[in-house]
Amino acid sequence: MSETTKPAYSPGLDGVIAGESAICAVDDVHGLRYRGYGIEEMAAKVPFEDVAWLLLHGEMPTETQKKEFAKDLSASAELPEGMTGILKSLPKKMRAMDQLRTAASALAAFDPDTGKFDHEANLRKSVRLLSRLTSVTTAGWRISQGKEPAIETKESLASRFLFGLTGKKPEAWRVRVLDTIFNLYAEHEFNASTFAARVTASTLADMYSAVVTAIGALEGPLHGGANEQAMTMLRDIGKPEKAEAWVKERLAKRDKIMGFGHRVYKKGDSRVPVMRGLLKEVGERVGQPKWLEVCLELDRVMEKEKGLFANLDLYAAPVLMLLEIPSELNTPLFACSRVAGWCAHVIEQQDKNRIIRPRSIYTGKAPREM
User: Fold this and answer.
1) pLDDT at position 31, please?
2) Angle between helices 330-351 and 226-237 (to 10 degrees)
3) 188 an active-site residue?
4) pLDDT for position 297
């Protein structure tokens, strides 16, 4: 790169086209589409396992494929021998996302396809990761609370997640709501964690290395950690009538308000209507409708004051809280869903690979002598 010619530069790669993908499209016109299907339409209609299959294979599964996929996920649900010991050896106060990152890395040691990089091996690794991230997340949480892991193998991933927290069979409506949440979070184009996974995969590193990279990126409060931060904000506000004053005070301090704005969506996150509907339903079921009212008022005030619309995290945070999922697990839960998208992108990247190696603009000292 010439030192005298300064090329175009987009901070944060805003608007930069960094690759091609057939997995997902997101824009203000058509919303969010997985392999061409609008997620807003199918989020509450299709099981998460079908969505995961769609992302990995490109088409919706046949009945035979559904049964085989369910069997494969079930076979991978139990943690490999030694994995529980690793989880028990971790510090009890370790953050849940750090625990998940460590566990995901350790899982590679137990995968018979580690060291294989062909398409079929990557698909097999994807199934194990999809199944086992749920198991290590809930097992790790119970261990940190002084309890033994509770792992269900036969039910859906959403049901297994809820069972894994309590050791009790969850109510059907809770499973359905979490299944919809998993669908909404499963994939979102070249977001930070997905792009990070593709960068790692482009070096021909193993699937597990790419997923660990993605988990690390997801942890940050400007990405996956935003829903946990959003719940802290909502608890701080407490009542809808306090929302406007709270927002204005934070804006005066130039504080970032979590749950608003998006790099791609400029007219509003297309997933929000579905999540807003879930918050209405769950709030009414458990007798806490105020959280929807707080979110709606925040939404109104932020649009008026800053022209910003709510993103998925604002409405997801209280839904997860009302499902009695500890807020510390909001981001790990996100990972248990998004791993479907991560794996699909790793496979796509390595099937037609070129190492991702951008350039930078040098801003240091001019050439000089010693």
Assistant:
1) 85
2) 150
3) no
4) 95
Decide: 267 and 279 in contact? Cβ < 8 Å: no
Segments in the chain forming alpha helices (H): 39-42, 48-57, 63-75, 83-89, 96-107, 119-144, 157-166, 172-185, 192-202, 207-218, 226-237, 243-252, 272-285, 290-306, 312-322, 330-351
Does the annotation mark 313 as catalytic? Answer: yes
User: CB under 8 Å to 116, separation ≥6 — which residues?
Assistant: none
**Max Cα–Cα distance, the chain, nearest Å:** 73
**CA 187/CA 345 separation, integer angstroms:** 10
Q: What is the pLDDT of residue 1?
A: 46
Give me the residue label for tokens 């009302």: 322
Task: Round to whole Å and give the CA distance between 179 and 52.
Answer: 11
* Structure tokens, 50: 């079908």
pLDDT of 9 strictly over 90: no
Take residue 86 and report the two structure tokens written for it. 């690793």
Domain at 24-220+335-351, CATH homologous superfamily: Citrate Synthase, domain 1 (1.10.580.10)
Concatenated DSSP letters of 231-255 = HHHHHHH-SGGGHHHHHHHHHHTTP
Angle, vertex CA 63, rays to CA 211 and CA 123, nearest 5: 20
Q: Which among 302, 300, 319 has a CA at the least distance from the CA of 256?
A: 302
Phi, psi of 310 (to 5 degrees): -65, 145
CATH class of the domain whose range is 226-322: mainly alpha
Per domain, the residue ranges of the chain are: 24-220+335-351, 226-322
pLDDT digits (tens, 9 = 90+) for 315-362: 999 999 999 999 999 999 999 999 999 999 999 999 999 999 998 888
Which residues touch 134 (CB under 8 Å, ≥6 apart)?
A: 77, 157, 160, 161, 164, 336
Selecting among 111, 113, 206, 262, the annotated active-site residue is 262
Convert the pLDDT of each residue in 84-136 to its tens digit: 999 999 999 999 999 999 999 999 999 999 888 899 999 999 999 999 999 99
Indicate the pTM of the whole model: 0.93
Taking a C-beta distance cutoff of 8 angstroms, is the pair 95, 328 a contact? yes
Which tokens belong to 165? 């927290």
Say if 24-220+335-351 and 226-322 have the same CATH topology: no
Contact status, residue 335 vs residue 181, Cβ threshold 8 Å:
no
